[in-house]
């Protein structure tokens, strides 16, 4: 049985990725951050032997290492690591608009540094097996085709993630590690209140927002993450429709 660790697994794409891998017979370690949400607990009842819930806040090095230690107590290796957790922060439409720049560090800490913490802590468990590192990025971080006009901490953090992965790829690919860089598309993501309750999702003012449902993009991501490629010596951002993007 193959083992996978998935961050940001409480809801949306992360939760649907957990389902995809469970349905394929994998042992799944689901990183749980929103403890109030019951969705993973409910899924655990359906897959009691192959789903393990792991407390995981990728913004804090000590909790990432604690998660790695917990997984190491259950299995002798991890085949695949999927960094899906994301933070969104703040943005401004112009230099004169008031913005709290202190919020800009949050998505960077989660989206970019979180990925680096994850690899650092789990790499000792990935010396054998598939040795596959997977990351959910976004076209929002692609510099060459940037079309937005607001200054977005989310976009900037994804650009930083893409560069971090390029450097990581340069170091680890010669050692047999393979990489997946994935753009999920514009996904209809459920909102969660500060109290942890799931709010009515996927719509604003009665209109659906986003092009893809979470299960659609997860169904596209899973085979991309699992299947081998003839060109493992290249790092390419692939979207959920199979198209390649510059990054």
From TrEMBL:
Pfam families: adh_short
Top-rank taxon, per record: Bacteria
PANTHER family per record: SHORT CHAIN DEHYDROGENASE, SHORT-CHAIN DEHYDROGENASE/REDUCTASE SDR
Protein name as catalogued: SDR family NAD(P)-dependent oxidoreductase
Originating organism: Neglectibacter timonensis
């Amino acid at each position: 049985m193959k083992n996978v660790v998935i961050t940001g697994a409480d809801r949306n794409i992360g939760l649907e990725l957990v389902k995809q891998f469970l349905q394929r017979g994998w042992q799944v370690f689901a990183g749980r951050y929103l403890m109030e949400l019951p969705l993973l607990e409910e899924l655990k009842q359906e897959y009691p032997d192959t789903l393990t819930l792991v407390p995981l806040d990728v913004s804090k090095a000590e909790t990432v290492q604690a998660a790695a230690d917990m997984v190491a107590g259950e299995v002798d290796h991890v085949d695949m690591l999927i960094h899906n957790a994301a933070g969104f922060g703040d943005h401004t439409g112009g230099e004169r608009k008031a913005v709290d720049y202190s919020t800009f560090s949050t998505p960077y800490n989660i989206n970019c540094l979180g990925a680096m913490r994850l690899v650092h802590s789990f790499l000792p468990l990935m010396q054998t097996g598939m040795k596959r590192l997977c990351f959910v990025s976004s076209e929002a971080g692609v510099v060459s085709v940037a079309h937005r006009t607001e200054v977005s901490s989310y976009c900037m953090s994804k650009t930083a993630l893409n560069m971090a992965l390029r450097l990581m790829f340069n170091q680890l690919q010669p050692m047999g590690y393979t990489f997946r860089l994935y753009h999920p598309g514009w996904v209809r993501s459920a909102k969660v209140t500060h109290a942890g309750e799931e709010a009515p999702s996927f719509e604003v003012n009665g209109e659906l927002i986003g092009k893809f449902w979470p299960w659609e993009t997860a169904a596209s991501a899973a085979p991309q993450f699992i299947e081998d490629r003839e060109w493992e010596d290249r790092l390419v951002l692939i979207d959920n429709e199979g198209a390649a993007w510059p990054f």
